[in-house]
Write a structure and sequence with these properties.
Order of helices and strands: HEEEHEHHE
CATH topology: Nucleotidyltransferase, domain 5
Strand content: 15-25%
Number of helices: 4
Distance between the termini: 43 Å
Oligomer: single chain
Structural class: alpha/beta
Length: 156
């Protein structure tokens, strides 16, 4: 209840600011994923973030320090990809409960070609053994057609 009151106080205190949700939008989930590898100077944990859109409207976002230290940026990115896949699956189930149908898989824009390659390669390599569970999470959602991974450049 305290969190709900806090949200209401924020909305009341910031008129004219907000998120726009148009009525005539295509109901397709898409997300953008970003990561700063080893950015915490004390723990060297990575900070990941994602934002998820339904059509052109922002509906979910998160920025969080990862729970473990990653040996490579690909490992950190893959862990962030798994977290994004979980959020997209939850949103898909929520939309189904609200009787909103989405026929296309959710698109995940990721700037790591190596993380996408790991997700699409069905053979485990020794260097991905330590992220095996995250590999299964993402691969399963790709195979079921819940998400589609696309590469996006971080350059202008």
């Amino acid at each position: 209840m305290a969190a709900a009151h806090r949200v209401l106080r924020y909305i009341k205190g910031s008129p004219g600011r907000g998120l726009f949700y148009p009525a005539n939008t295509i109901l397709k989930l898409k997300s953008f994923l970003g990561l700063d590898w080893g950015t915490c100077t004390e723990t060297r944990k990575s900070v990941m973030g994602f934002c998820i859109f339904l059509g052109s409207s922002l509906i979910s976002w998160r920025s969080k320090k990862q729970a473990t230290v990653s040996k490579s940026s690909s490992e950190a990115k893959y862990r962030a990809l798994a977290m994004t896949a979980f959020e997209l699956q939850w949103l898909n189930m929520l939309l189904q409960d609200l009787h909103v149908t989405t026929t296309d898989p959710a698109v995940v824009f990721c700037d790591s070609k190596s993380a996408i390659a790991i997700a699409e390669n069905h053979v485990f390599h020794e260097r991905t053994k330590h992220i095996e569970i995250d590999c299964h999470v993402v691969r399963e959602r790709v195979a079921r057609g819940l998400i589609k991974l696309l590469s996006v450049s971080t350059l202008n």
